[in-house]
Amino acid sequence: MILHKGEVLFHQGDESKYLYHVNSGLFKVTRLHENGNIVLFNILYPGETVPHHSLISPKEIHGTAIALVTSEVEVIKAADWYRELEEDPRRPLEVARLLQEKVRFMQERLDHLTVGSPAERLELLSKWLARHVNGTPLTDYMTQEEIGQLIGVRRETVNRLLRSHPL
């Protein structure tokens, strides 16, 4: 399946009828809270099979995944995934590797958030994302609010950073 910028892969609250393997591109995952706040809490990148919380057993989808750039995804029927997980003794190790990779990604993101200045955090985020978007500038596919959420600063700070340190 090919999704273009802005198209939704899955919605918060959907049943886990499918899993998705990201072959190329990037997705942002947002969560709408009861108070109306929308928070960007994850980035999906090539090589991931998602939703992570449904790799071993089904669970309602936790957020909405939206393509940031043109992306290719393999759709996997959840029933087939779970059956293969039980039948093929190599599959559990595959799932463990997928989860390990995501933990390592989260560790890297936490490291980026603890770097000294907001400018350094913006640069690290931009470089990490650039590996997956073929040189497309960060501001072409993410809002200043979203960038701020990923580097731990307010939108106004991102605006100031982008004016003084263009990417």
Automatic annotation (TrEMBL):
Q: Does the keyword rRNA processing apply?
A: no
Entry keyword Transcription regulation: yes
Which intervals hold domain Cyclic nucleotide-binding? 1-77
Q: Which SUPFAM superfamilies match?
A: cAMP-binding domain-like, Winged helix' DNA-binding domain
What PROSITE patterns does the entry give? CNMP_BINDING_3
Question: Which keywords describe this protein according to UniProt?
Answer: Activator, DNA-binding, Transcription, Transcription regulation
Against InterPro entries, the record matches this protein to: cNMP-bd_dom, cNMP-bd_dom_sf, Env_Response_Regulators, HTH_CRP, RmlC-like_jellyroll, WH_DNA-bd_sf
Q: What is this protein called?
A: CRP-like cAMP-binding protein
Which organism does this record belong to? Paenibacillus turicensis
